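Researcher: Next entry: Elongation factor P (Sediminicola luteus).
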Amino acid sequence: MANTSDIRKGLCIKYNHDIYKIIEFLHVKPGKGPAFVRTKLKSVTSGKVIDNTFSAGHKIDDVRVETRSYQYLYPEGETYHFMDTQDYNQITLQESTLDNPGLLKEGETVSILFNTEDQMPLSVEMPAHVILEVTHTEPGVKGNTATNATKPATVETGARVNVPLFINEGDKIKLETEKGTYMERIKE
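Model: Predicted structure:
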């Protein structure tokens, strides 16, 4: 058993007969009244995100998890195939367990959280950023760079992201996986 002071991003807890992963949290100490923790929880079974507020000192039932390295192989409809980098066993996971599946490139190494009690996969943690090639984007208009203007672009995985106007087809860009946003262009 843990309490609200142990809450951190990525912690898996049992709540309302389901297992949730904490994706955001904020400790709040108002001027009047008791402190509390505002959280955003994502169900590892359905992918549904809920907001919840825990009062300070509230007991939470945390789930012991084990992290293993897996390599992403390929998608097949709503399921995604991964291979253990240690013993080469393959597993399939539903799209709901992935935070941003559109940025997942074949061959990418990810961390998969497993429940230590029943060895069920809970969620997939992608690397902090990925480098992808732009496959389609409209050319930027010269002289339109005074503002932080962006344009839509399609990357090699099929995901659509907003990029600055100077990005062209064939450029490699670094994307933040948590929000799916552009970070920088990669020079070769």
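Model: Note for the record: The chain has no helices and 16 strands.
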